[in-house]
Amino acid sequence: MRKALIIAVSAIAVIFTLWYMHFGSLTENSGALSVTGLSHPVYFTIWGILAFCGIFSNLFLAYKQLLPKYRFQNLLFAMSAIGMILTLAFDFDYSLYVQYILHCFGSLLFSVSTAACVFLLFFLNFSKSKMFKIFTYIIGAVLIIDLGMLLIFKETALIEAVPVLFALIILPVLNFTSFFKEKEYASR
Q1: Which of 1, 105, 159, 173 has the smallest C-beta neighbourhood within 10 Å, fewest atoms?
Q2: Do 70 and 63 form a contact (C-beta atoms < 8 A)?
Q3: Is the pLDDT of residue 19 over 90?
Q4: Beta-carbon count within 10 A of 131 CB
Q5: What is the mean predicted confidence (pLDDT) over 11-31?
Q6: Among residues 51, 65, 101, 107, which one has the least CA distance to residue 84?
């Protein structure tokens, strides 16, 4: 039952994210998810809750299964939750400067702590299989490229959504398939 629920939430979050992105331009600052949230605050809140629940239900399960002795991730989980709450509670409206700052701080806190959780999950399992090694590099590259694009082009729906969508897809694959397990071959 838990498996089906986590997969369903992740799938709904992916679909909702892709749908929500259609309200704004994918490649312009005016289409950033938070900017779109000014016109569609209920959808923005639904998106934030779905994205957070999809990513963190998977992260919680993955850390429990793969790294049961580690506890550092609980601090990152809490920081990410606080970040998402601030992001959803305060508008991305520069005319309301304090709200704008709290929204931006929350968004940054959510992004950094979530990225750290996902990257460290794969990095700490690096030696377990070839797929963990490959995806540690892929995740690192996605995060670095996304940060570079963010610094160059500022916020756009595409730049903001790529790491979220990547996490919402790869984490259920990690948790519920054998894709990351090292294949054992029968000896000759």
Answers
A1: 1
A2: yes
A3: yes
A4: 19
A5: 90
A6: 107
Residue type for 72, please? F
Q: Whole-prediction pTM value?
A: 0.90
Nearest Cα to Cα of residue 61 among 139, 5, 23? 5
Task: Calculate the CA 77 to chain-centre distance.
Answer: 12
Spell 24-49 as b/e; 16+ CB within 10 A means b. Answer: bbeeeeebbbbbbbeeeeebbebbbe
Q: What is the pLDDT of residue 188?
A: 47
Q: What residue type is assigned to position 42 of the chain?
A: V
Q: How far is CA 45 from the centre of its chain?
A: 15
Residue 144, token pair as written in the block? 């670095």
Q: Residue 139 and residue 119: Cα distance in Å, rounded?
A: 6
Q: What is the CA radius of gyration of the chain?
A: 17
Length reported for the chain: 188
